[in-house]
Structure prediction request, 203 residues.
Amino acid sequence: FSLAHRGLLVMDNLHLFGDQVLQLLASTFDARSVRVARAARSVELPAHFQLVAAVPRCLCGAPTTLDCVCSDPARARFLSKLRGVLLDRIEIVIDLDRLSGVDPLNPIRDLDITRTAHDPIADEVLPTVAPVDQHARHALDEAVTSGRLSHRGMASAWRVADTIQRLTQTAGPIGLDVMLEALHLRYGNPDGAPYLHLTPSPR
Prediction:
């Protein structure tokens, strides 16, 4: 992990890594460092990186969800390994089909994005640096209240919404549409249902 410090760590077939490695990965996200112990000595190495991880949709390796031949229980067991502590630390989850050769990043390469994963907005200044309107805040609060997001996940989703706001060069506070897109990107929407069944927000 330390070799990827201030860089990009790519882990293909993440589901094939052992539970001990995944637990270490989760704790490294919090500490931004990794401790290596040998006999009576130990050393702490920096490990602050962006993670890009890939997993197949299921054990059968079907190219699309419609082609999957796995049973629902088998698919649930397969996905359960990656849920919980680790998923709570991953900010964006995207279901991808095979890429066509078109560069998906081309439209945003020339945008001036000054903030990076190595210089994130601190949780306590999010309301000041990335203000949200009351409807977007209501969506965040309801996601936490319903148990869909932890408080750590709420801050992550807020930062993703701020990134979307800047990428789309939208003025003003972060609105409901942008926030729902950030929440959708956090856990995906495999069954086509709305991410949240929102109660009316206060006026």
Observations:
- The beta strands are 8-11, 33-38, 41-46, 50-53.
- Confidence is low (pLDDT under 50) at residues 189-203.
- The longest helix spans residues 151-167.
